[in-house]
Amino acid sequence: MYHISRFSAVHFAICLFACVSNVYAGQSDRIGKQPAEQDQRKHRSDDFPLLDTTLQLTESCREVIWTCAARIQTTLTIAVLRVKSECHLATGNDQGAIEAYSRILDVNPSCQFAWGGRALCYYKRGKYRQAISDFSRLLQLAPHPAALALRADAYSELGDVKAALDDYSRAITLGPLEYAFRLDRGNLYLKQGRYEEAIGDYTQVLRLVPDEYAAYFNRGMAYAKAGKLKEALGDYTQQIRLRPKEPIGYLVRSRIYRRLGDEAKARADEEVLRKLPPIPGISITPERDAPPPPSSSQQPK
């Protein structure tokens, strides 16, 4: 139905143009065959106002039809190129999608989905500077929170932490996916060793989405790195509650128990862990994986 309707619109425009052209040509021929009458009507325009009005309307119709046809052609071109870009994406041909998006932008430099689509393709191919450039052009057209977050990801890949944090913060203020953008910003804080700020973002995420698995897991990591082992233990317990068949939760919690001096619970988690699918590249042998002994400040009271 989508393609039929567009074809019908073009067909209608062409037929209407042909009809108007024929009428105009027929009128011109009739006037040309009667030069004396034409001269007479020129001098007696007050007696024949309809002829002049008809000719003016005909010319206006031609201009309107050409404008409509041009717009329809542009719309059809963009629609075809968009289908091509989606086919390229479906087959993993990011370069083909980039070329299709570039052709769309040649036709319509204000096409938002083309800027965003090409930016995503650049990002997937590791061309972060080109991705940032395209996301920036998209943001000049409209304040997309997702584009800000994705540009922040690209800045982070390039090591520009300040620019990344600025974009995440702007995305958070725009919404509506505040929890997702806070999670991203918290992850960057965690990566930078800014544990308290990471904990703050993860806590806000859990206020918005109480059962967000990643927020519990990552906040537990931030607590553990900040030396707050009891808080970390609580978060990993919540993470296990949400995903009881995820082995990583038991692995990390067993290490926390061992650092707190609770060997029995550490071994209990390891027993559960042995019944779950193995984690590639990670051993659960206590002697091999046990972290350093806890300091006195980390001992349970």
Tell me what the structure shows.
By secondary structure, the protein is mainly alpha-helical. It has a domain at 1-27 and 52-91. Helices cover 78% and strands 0% of the residues. It contains 15 helices and no strands. Residues 1-34, 41-45 and 287-301 have low confidence and may be disordered.
Count of individual helical segments: 15
Biggest pleated sheet:
none
Oligomer: single chain
The percentage helix is: over 70%
- The rounded distance between the terminal residues' Cα atoms is 71 Å
Strand tally: 0
Structure classification: mainly alpha
Poorly predicted spans: 1-34, 41-45, 287-301
User: What percent of residues are in strands?
Assistant: under 5%
Mean of all residue-level pLDDT scores:
80
Write the element-wise H/E pattern from the N-terminal end onward: HHHHHHHHHHHHHHH
Morphology call: elongated
**Radius of gyration (Å):** 34 Å
SSE inventory with pairings:
Elements lengths: L1 H32 L1 H9 L5 H42 L3 H14 L4 H13 L3 H14 L3 H13 L3 H14 L3 H14 L3 H14 L4 H13 L3 H14 L4 H13 L3 H12 L11 H4 L12
Helix pairs in contact: 1-3, 3-4, 4-5, 5-6, 6-7, 7-8, 8-9, 9-10, 9-11, 10-11, 11-12, 12-13, 13-14
Short structural description:
The chain has 301 residues and is mostly helical. The chain has a domain at 1-27 and 52-91. It has helices spanning 2-33, 35-43, 49-90, 94-107, 112-124, 128-141, 145-157, 161-174, 178-191, 195-208, 213-225, 229-242, 247-259, 263-274, 286-289.
